[in-house]
Amino acid sequence: MPGKSEKTKTNNSSSSQSQIPSSIQFPMASALISGAKYSDSLTVVGTSLCTAVVCEAISWLLIYRTASYKSLKSSIDKASKKLETMKTTDGNPTLLKKSSKTKKMDRVESSLKESSRDLSMFKFKSGAVVALVLFIVFGLLNSMFEGRVVAKIPFVPIRLVQKMSHRGLVGDDMTDCSMTFLYFLCSISIRTNLQKFLGFSPPRGAAGGGMFPMPDPKSS
Asked: So where does this one cross the membrane (predicted)?
């Protein structure tokens, strides 16, 4: 009978459709579910990236494009290279040459420390603005994700890290990650790599210099 054959065909087609996995039938729905699952962590990471870009733009406007910063950076690079050259070219110096070389190295080191200190003081101009931006962004994120788990740590961290990674969260699952911990990690890693990519990283000779450098053992 033609009517029965058509009914069997429709039944077979409906049964074959029901046997198809739901992940194949509804790829859009599974994608939306997985996207919603990681939406909080992606929001925190994206906000950290945008904040790092804004902070570096502020630093470029106030510091990096100025002639004073370029002059200080150039002097630090030259002094650090000169100091490295003086330390490597020892040879077999006499006592007189060694004493004169030590005096020259002391002068270069003192000049390098002064330039590094001036550079750190010069960066204070944008430091207050950048700190204000970071404070505002952190306050907004804290109000949005207070008490919410934004990510999962693949291992149980040590007790010292747990105080920050599980801050503000309820429950005993120490693999839960709070917004504060994720934002802290993203801010450090993203901004440091962004500075290297843009060429805004501090000069190598200024790594140990700062507002409060380590005391010189020679002077004591």
From this structure: 42-64, 127-145
Return d(Cα 69, Cα 75) in angstroms, integer: 10
CB 68 within 8 A of CB 122: yes
Give dist(CA 30, CA 36) in Å, integer. Answer: 10
Taking the alpha carbons at both ends of the chain, their separation in whole angstroms is: 109
Q: From the centroid of its chain, how far is CA 22? A: 40
CB burial of residue 152 (10 Å; 0-12, 13-18, 19+): exposed
DSSP 203: P
Residue that the structure tokens 């003192």 belong to: 110
pLDDT of residue 54: 92
pLDDT digits (tens, 9 = 90+) for 111-166: 888 888 888 887 887 788 888 998 999 999 988 888 888 888 888 888 888 888 88
What is the rounded CA–CA span in Å between residue 161 and residue 169?
Answer: 14
DSSP H or E segment with residue 94: none
> What residue has token string 């054959």?
5
Q: How many residues does the chain have?
A: 220
